[in-house]
Amino acid sequence: MATAGTMSNNVENLSPQIIRRVVKEMESLVQKPPEGIKVQINDEDVTDIQAYIDGPAGTPYMSGVFKVKLTLGKGFPQEPPKAFFLTKIFHPNVAPNGEICVNTLKKDWKSDLGIKHILLTIKCLLIVPNAESALNEEAGKLLLEHYEDYSQRAKMMTEIHAQPQKISKESSGEGPLAKKHASDKNKQLTAEKKKILKDKKRTLKRL
Hints:
By secondary structure, this protein is of the alpha+beta class. 52% of the residues lie in helices and 11% in strands. It has 9 helices and 4 strands. It has a 4-stranded antiparallel β-sheet with strand order 1-2-3-4. The longest helix is centred in the last third of the chain and has 31 residues, at 176-206. It is globular, with a radius of gyration of 19 Å.
């Protein structure tokens, strides 16, 4: 009984109109997902919003998939949702516990904006980190002073924690056959990636 209460806790904090608005937006995000973002709906608690964000090309997060969670507080929509990375990430604006810098989320927030705006803001942070409001000081310092080292650390964390097959295994109870099929597919992808990297290196040598 207690668990049901905790699950619907957030729902009780929000008015029915706001809950309807959130449900409507989530459904439209499922039908028309923004590029590189896939949302998950929790039927038990509509205010528990989780999404997968693809690491943007040209960043150290490229080829990773990052799971994020948004929490709607009772101040929503006047205040933006709180956001957390559930996937480990090395990034100036993400605290070691995964919390994303509130100031960044508040920056362009207006009450008529919604979930999509926050998810796109998080994706933009992966492209352009903000060293001034760093929650991970080491990452912020490296970003400003030794970009190469920052990039290497972020890349390494992405390779260890944010690989698509790792995340999909964690979040789905698929049978071994489905997993085998997925791993075959991933092997194929890895082979393709290696080939692309080889070609890139060749091109660089020519330049």
